[in-house]
Specification:
homodimer; alpha+beta; 60s Ribosomal Protein L30, Chain: A; Phosphoribosyl-aminoimidazole Synthetase, Chain A, domain 2; 2 domains; seven-stranded mixed beta sheet; 12 strands
Chain lengths: 322, 322
């Protein structure tokens, strides 16, 4: 690759590919690194947010704290793991008020406490802008780990919760700049309970929707080598997405499937285990919807107009194409 | 604490204290978090750098990559540990060239390879400024870990390498803005070999000099409850510090003892083990200098003019007092 190309020209996935190629060993295509220790895998992940890319003006510091914890724990959830420890590297401006820090930490702690995760320390530095990195450590049994590459032809494809809710907030916020929409954009729940349940019930594979449903479907398909077909009529599209599509004049499928910033799980489950899984999920009141199947090659979505190929790559940093 | 106070007013250590007080459990005063697993401790640490605080203009990307890896591994070294895995959360500007990323990663890899550390993954995001967080995982035997609180009255105090070298580069750079000085400022080696050797030889405690020698002495003293007396005439002051003090008209003791950005280890060793340790260090050609002793209360330094109390707190983010 031409070294003069800018990150804006090659995009986030291009940069990651370039970095990986330099290290002379392979990286798994997963939400976390998984390292053997005893009969467990230690899960390591990092996710950072900054004002420019992630934090709309006027959003409360507690919401930012919850978001930073949630996006990191979501990576553990996508491996079927249990999160254990969390660290932060915070770059804050000098004129930040201590009240801001308190509210931010309170929000972060709320999410960590909910999942029994302990803050193990961190680093605080002075910076020009708000830039917040989180690091999470978790664990999962070797025979329970959910990996993208393990999705198999015939697997039933599920999604937790609803799709399009955060994307709806994004479009409403773009239109009105209202603070409540800013808060809703960052309002995500890491699907830890769901990930643990799914890995316990014999799911093969999972990925979170952080880059959008279509992007996640493509990534799961590419890592595993099986095609995936979705049924649009089955998608649990959030009512908010329907409202936002109408209110903002934006295509509903775009809002539901092509915008990042959502943290539900996309999951593959062997067909033989699907019925039992659905029954047990229902018994627990866990929102889990069958939206497709792993089959053939490539990724498609069935609509009224027939099957369409999924081409969107979803949100990508440095890129204008997201 | 009044929530309206800014970070500029309370300083980095004030922020950290405030955050810790919110979590309802105690944090060890160490360079890493140490978590039990089997008969080992897992070491977790994070350190971030950004353009505003750490990276002088014109410094080569490879030097930045080496620095990011080194400052994180240094925390593992200060616990007597072996580093195993490294992750990064990089916030880069959109117009960054891929060549820049390659050179940065090459520098980082150079340091990681030297200590057998594997890159376990990372995150790359678009940001307004260069902001680079590292996250290192290591391990150490439970009975070998070096903790600040374990320094005991009577321990001999050592320092690895020399002091004042990076501080000298900082003053020369301030004067001339020359690129070679910028590079020297960031030229640090994590003392992994030394940390492993010292913990194997029965040292009690260690801390790196990232905030400057005096600040580290005070932190070791506060965590352990013993006073520490240094002998100024024994300090292994780098020749470069002597040159810079003269060339820039700055007090030599300030350069050698009060400026951060150095990554040698300050170590406490029980007196009964000191002779054997020194002999073995000499045999290995390892630079290790006896500079003081743990005794009494408070921290002092003996000079020609008698004993002075150590009052400097060293470099502190958000603060003008460093």
């Amino acid at each position: 690759m031409d070294g003069r190309l800018s990150l804006g020209e090659i995009g986030e996935r291009g940069v990651i590919k370039e970095i990986r190629s330099m290290f002379g060993y392979s990286f798994d295509d997963d939400d976390c690194a998984a390292i053997e220790y005893g009969d467990m895998l230690m899960l390591l992940t990092t996710d950072s947010i900054n004002r420019q890319s992630h934090i709309p003006d006027g959003v409360a510091p507690a919401a930012i704290g919850r978001f930073l914890a949630a996006v990191n724990l979501s990576d553990i959830a996508a491996m079927g793991g249990k999160p254990l420890y969390f660290m932060t590297a915070l770059e804050l401006e000098r004129d930040t008020r201590i009240r801001w820090v308190r509210e931010f930490e309170t929000g972060m702690k709320e999410v960590l406490d909910r999942y029994g995760v302990k803050l193990a320390g961190g680093d605080t530095k002075e910076g020009h802008d708000l830039s917040l990195a989180g690091f999470a450590v978790g664990e999962v049994g070797k025979n329970r780990v959910l990996r993208r590459r393990n999705c198999r032809k015939g697997d039933v494809i599920y999604v937790t919760g609803t799709v399009g809710k955060n994307a709806a907030a994004y479009y409403m916020w773009k239109k009105s700049k209202g603070r409540k929409w800013a808060r809703c954009m960052l309002d995500v729940e890491p699907r830890i309970k769901e990930g643990l349940f799914l890995s316990g019930m014999g799911a093969t594979s999972a990925i979170d929707l952080s880059d959008g449903l279509f992007a996640s479907v493509k990534q799961l398909s590419e890592a595993s080598g099986t095609g995936i077909s979705l049924d649009y009529s089955k998608l649990p599209i959030d009512m908010a997405a329907v409202c936002a599509a109408e209110s903002c004049g934006v295509d509903l499928m775009h809002i539901a499937c092509e915008v990042g910033g959502e943290y539900e799980l996309l999951v593959g489950v062997p067909k033989a285990r699907a019925a039992k899984l659905e029954k047990e999920a229902e018994r627990r009141g866990m929102a889990l919807t069958r939206i497709g199947i792993a089959r053939g090659k490539g990724c498609t979505i069935e609509t009224d107009k027939g099957a369409e190929e999924i081409t969107s790559n979803g949100y990508e940093h440095f890129s204008d194409t997201g």
